[in-house]
């Protein structure tokens, strides 16, 4: 064994392990101080919330599930699921039976590389429709629902590499319009005719590539605004485009600068009737919440933590209290984290984490899949092309 030091290698290994332990303790203590986990002189370290979910079902979908949504596509009163499958250029339609069980996935071919899907009533017939992007085909697809889980397909050309699909009535004519972000720092507007056809509107510079976005009247002036999660190597922020009510927008305003936002959702987190913003970040495995003032401005972002590589999130009532909680899919650590909120609105730490056997989860959604009045969770395992269904356990408070 000349020329090799077993002791040296052993010391390095021990040092690395000790370093990880110390780092974990420091992190836990920091969060304990922030969340009130240290009481008096006794160091009472916080514990995760109760085990609120159990894995109930595993569903096979096509190759490369990248996004999920929950909707009642066949209008039978039961929650259904839709998965975009980027590798095979398809959607998987899974019709729910109302007991946590779903029919075998029906595969719907769409244009190349779909990575996001939204549901909305495009043509005003009160039947759920779908919109999905096509990163590899420079278009988005309109799927007009028949109310039985099947669809009529239309396509709308876009600029290069469409990313986020953001539907709303941007010109106040009572017809649905669509904003589409593009890889090369742009956003295109498409004004709807009310029958599934769209006319190209204005194009706006976003400053950075926007992977996701939401529409809402953030300043309560009666016009729909857009918030984008825009990130690049040079600049990142949430960008707010204030709507003029005619399908045009003002120059964007930047908030939450340098947070490298990825997935963005809106929810009324503090029950004041205003839609707040929550987003995942590529910076330090963090997430952030922005509380709306109702005038287009927001409080300074509140940071909180999930697992390794938080990439997609959903909000819902995941326990028996009245606070909205958050579940986040962590692509690097192959799990999802349940982040429960306390009565005062702060976050319970540490999180309760659930291993995703399908690996590399890129998408998560929530809904009542077994019709018991409680919100459940579905998460897509990209590595094994499956969706895992987690049902909420009934708890007594």
Write out key terms for the chains shown.
43% strand; disordered N terminus; single chain; 397 residues; four-stranded antiparallel beta sheet; 2 domains; Methylamine Dehydrogenase, Chain H; 28 strands; mainly beta
CATH C-level class of the largest domain: Mainly Beta
Q: How would the global form be characterised?
A: globular
What kind of sheet is the major sheet? 4 strands, antiparallel
Rg of Cα set: 22 Å
Counted beta strands: 28
Instruction: Indicate how many domains the architecture comprises.
Output: 2
The number of helices is 1
Give me the side-by-side strand order of the main sheet: 1-28-27-26
Give the low-pLDDT segments. Answer: 1-41
Beta-strand percentage?
35-45%
CATH superfamily of the largest domain: YVTN repeat-like/Quinoprotein amine dehydrogenase
Note the gap between the termini.
Answer: 63 Å
Instruction: Label the CATH architecture of the largest domain.
Output: 7 Propeller
Q: Which structural class matches the secondary elements?
A: mainly beta
Entry summary:
The protein starts with 5 loop residues before the first helix and ends in a 5-residue tail after the last strand. It has 1 helix and 28 strands. With 397 residues, the protein is mainly β.
Word description of this protein:
- The strands form seven sheets. The protein has a four-stranded antiparallel β-sheet, with no helix packed on it. The chain has a four-stranded antiparallel β-sheet with strand order 2-3-4-5, with no helix packed on it. Strands 6-7-8-9 form a four-stranded antiparallel β-sheet, with no helix packed on it.
- Strand 18 and strand 19 form a beta hairpin.
- The N terminus is likely disordered.
- The protein is built from one helix and 28 strands.
- It folds into two domains: 39 residues; 341 residues, Methylamine Dehydrogenase, Chain H, CATH 2.130.10.
- The protein is mainly beta.
- 8% of the residues lie in helices and 43% in strands.
């Amino acid at each position: 064994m000349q020329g090799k030091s077993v002791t040296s290698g052993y010391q390095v290994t021990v040092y690395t392990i000790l370093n990880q332990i110390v780092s974990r303790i420091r992190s836990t203590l920091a969060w304990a101080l922030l969340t009130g986990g240290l009481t008096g002189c006794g160091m009472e370290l916080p514990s995760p919330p109760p085990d609120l979910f159990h894995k109930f079902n595993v569903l096979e979908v096509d190759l490369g599930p990248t996004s999920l949504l929950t909707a009642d596509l066949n209008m039978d009163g039961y929650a259904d699921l839709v998965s975009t499958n980027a590798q095979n250029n398809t959607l998987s339609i899974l019709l729910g039976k109302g007991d946590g069980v779903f029919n075998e996935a029906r595969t719907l071919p769409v244009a190349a590389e779909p990575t996001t899907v939204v549901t909305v009533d495009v043509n005003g017939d009160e039947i759920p429709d779908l919109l999905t992007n096509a990163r590899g085909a420079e278009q988005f697809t309109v799927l007009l629902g028949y109310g039985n889980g099947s669809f009529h397909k239309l396509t709308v050309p876009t600029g290069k590499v469409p990313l986020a699909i953001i539907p709303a009535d941007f010109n106040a004519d009572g017809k649905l319009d669509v904003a589409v972000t593009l890889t090369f720092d742009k956003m295109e507007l498409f004004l709807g005719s009310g029958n599934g056809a769209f006319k190209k509107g204005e194009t706006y510079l976003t400053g950075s590539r926007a992977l996701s976005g939401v529409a809402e009247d953030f300043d309560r002036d009666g016009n729909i605004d857009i918030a984008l999660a825009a990130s690049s190597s040079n600049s990142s922020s949430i960008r707010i485009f204030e709507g003029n009510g005619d399908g045009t927008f003002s120059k964007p305003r930047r908030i939450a600068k340098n947070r490298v936002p990825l997935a963005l959702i809106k929810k009324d987190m503090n029950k004041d009737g205003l839609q707040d913003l929550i987003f995942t970040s590529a910076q330090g495995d963090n997430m952030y919440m922005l509380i709306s003032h109702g005038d287009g401005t927001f409080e300074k972002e509140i940071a909180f933590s999930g697992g390794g590589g938080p990439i997609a999130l959903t909000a819902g009532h995941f326990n028996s209290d009245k606070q909205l909680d958050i579940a986040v899919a962590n692509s690097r650590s192959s799990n999802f984290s349940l982040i429960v909120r306390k009565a005062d609105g702060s976050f319970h730490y540490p999180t309760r984490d659930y291993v995703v056997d399908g690996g590399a989860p890129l998408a998560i959604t929530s809904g009542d899949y077994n019709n018991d009045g409680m919100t459940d969770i579905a998460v897509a395992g990209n590595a094994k092309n499956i969706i895992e269904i987690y049902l909420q356990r009934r708890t007594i408070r």
